[in-house]
Amino acid sequence: MESIMYLLHGFSEVLTPFNLLIVVMGSLLGTLVGVLPGLGPTSAIAILLPLTTILEPAQGIMMMAGIYYGSMYGGSTTAILMNIPGEASSVPTTLDGYPLAKMGRAGAALGVAAIGSFIAGIIGLIGLVLFAPILADQALKFGPPEYFTLMLIALFILFNLTGFSLVKSIIMGLFGFLISLVGIGISSGMPRFDFGVDAINGGFEMISVIIGLFAITEVLKGLEEKRVSINHQRIKNAYPNKEDMKKSFSPILRGSLLGFFLGILPGVSATITSFLSYDLERKVSKSPEKFGNGAIEGVAGPESANNATSSGGFIPLLALGIPASPPLAILLAALMIYGLTPGPVLFEQNSQLVWTVIASMFIGNIILLILNLPLIGLWAKLTEVPFGILGPVILMVSVIGAYTVRNSMFDVVVAITFGIFGYLFHKFQWPLIPFVLCLVLGPKMESSFIQSLEISSGNVLIFFQRPISLTLLLLAGFLMIISIMLMKRTKKRIIQETGEQMEFS
Amino acid sequence: MQIKFISPDRIGAIISIILGCLSIFEAIRLFPYGNRILTGDHTFPGLIGVFLVISGGFLLFERNSKEKKDPVLPRGRTAFIMIVSIGSLFIYCLLIEFIGYFFSTVITFVCLIKIIGSYRWIFSILVAGVLTTMLYFLFIVLLKTPFPSITWPF
């Protein structure tokens, strides 16, 4: 009940002209970047993050959330119209979305995807309102050892889920940690890994690294693939008919619930739930032979599951400070830039801000639905922007954006260098997810670890002696087995459908 | 550009071992500033260093599957475009300090549009001018970012 009151107060905060404008801008900007071929939510947030830094924390985070939702929505546009999944989680959408577009029913597919995303988003947010405060309340009992165990477990499960080699994932995670350690040490105040270079004393700016890895790398990938503007299937009508909606209703509901409940578990990504939802729909369908040839249920289910999982990911992010996916890791970095510490303390100390942001997500979802259905034609036109213009724009916005964070040219050099690294990582199949997660969580993990050992006078058994910590470890073992099984299944399905290995999102 | 003697994964493994050793070296340097063996600024660099060396070792001696094809880096014009694009960005970092935001941004934009899009000079210059102005309004006028600017001698 208390949560509802806080949420209502949050709505009253969001429903001011300026805040509404921020949410609208975030949703539109996110969709704008998300519809550009090859750019997914992570790149969209990385490119647009510097633009939000001049805003107040609440407005900045509202805009980031809008960008996240908008770019998720934009991703389905390219999947349906051009058969280009922005991320692995959009692959199931292409299976029936593109055949529908070829049949001249792109509008119906896009409309169902938008409605499905909206319903799933709202279901996910209701779950967030109901569960996040309870989880945060429980997490208040956590001390540094429990936090350390929790973060370690989350990382280990996620490492295993990248879709690539486990050893390479671990090395990438350790490399992310290493980068996060550069700068002034937390206990002694001594510079670490500076090797006498003054510029490194302050450490690497997380945003510059992220911009490099996701935005600059994306352009290099585009250059290699010789991306050009792609002609897409024409859209005749952006609204699905009554028959489409009747067919899609149950898949949307099933996808949303499946995506949300599995999405809360660490290690179950949007890629896993969208594939599961697609396979579930095919299994329960009376005419499974239509799947792959333009079944609207094949778009409705996975799109809803994808969005519900993303909304569900906000629960561990806001209540525990643990991101479940790369875009959420970047959002966590953004929260840290604003001086906020996600986790149970956030609900205690900044409850007004948290509830305003949650309320803005409800409004953002509604805005996306209202604006995007009529604007589908315009978004589709945007996909025709030639890469010869788009590439230079992304590069320059990235470079200038990296500069704006600390007004430092060193950060720009860091962004460009990590852009090159990101390309090489992609090329030689070194997964980026563990790197980003460890980069963002590194400082927090280090302080929890050192505090834990200070409590126990250096005894490492503290992580096994405390009941909550031990329970978390046992639970992790169980979750790990489930996630390995699901991961293997999804890996097989991706290779079946695309013929190649893809990094999970 | 395909490396025949050593696979890319093995190169990654060697880099991982080198980084691990570097991290252990840093931990040893920082050790005197810590309280105990596991509490101090040296703890994480030490642990990460050890794990990097172990993981690198695992990858180094992992048997490569014969079916797995090593990726090949781009060659020819594609490689040229990629190198020039990245090179332009590095040059931009130097240029902006000397000739300020506007001119350096226009020059870099022209270079990137010409090389990536292969458009005609006049089109590249026009588009570069428009885009630079748009970014000027966004980052300098709206976001008030203090970029380096030229101090005219007159």
Task: Describe the 3D structure.
The complex is a heterodimer of chains A (505) and B (154). Chain A is an all-alpha fold and 505 residues long. Chain A has helices at residues 2-14, 17-34, 41-52, 57-82, 91-102, 106-139, 144-160, 166-181, 206-224, 242-264, 270-284, 297-312, 314-320, 326-337, 344-349, 351-382, 387-406, 409-427, 432-455, 462-465, 467-498; strands at 183-184, 191-192. Chain A has a two-stranded antiparallel sheet. In chain A, strand 1 (183-184) and strand 2 form a beta hairpin. The longest helix of chain A is centred in the N-terminal third of the chain and has 34 residues, at 106-139. Chain A is globular, with a radius of gyration of 22 Å. Chain B is an all-alpha fold and 154 residues long. Chain B has helices at residues 8-30, 43-61, 76-117, 121-142. The model of chain B has no long low-confidence stretch (mean pLDDT 86). Classes of the chains: A mainly alpha (505), B mainly alpha (154). The interface between A and B is large, with 60 and 64 residues.
Arrangement of strands in the largest sheet of chain A = 1-2
Low-confidence stretches of chain B: none
Taking pLDDT < 50 over at least 5 consecutive residues as the criterion, the unreliable ranges of chain A are none
Please give the count of helices of chain B: 4
Helix % of chain A is over 70%
Shape of chain A: globular
Structural class of chain B: mainly alpha
Mean pLDDT of chain B: 86
Q: How many strand elements of chain B?
A: 0
The helix/strand order of chain A is HHHHHHHHEEHHHHHHHHHHHHH
β-sheet strand percentage of chain A: under 5%
End-to-end Cα distance of chain A: 34 Å
As a whole number of angstroms, the C-alpha radius of gyration of chain A is 22 Å
Biggest beta-sheet profile of chain B: none
Instruction: Please give the share of residues in helix of chain B.
Output: 55-70%
- Oligomer kind: heterodimer
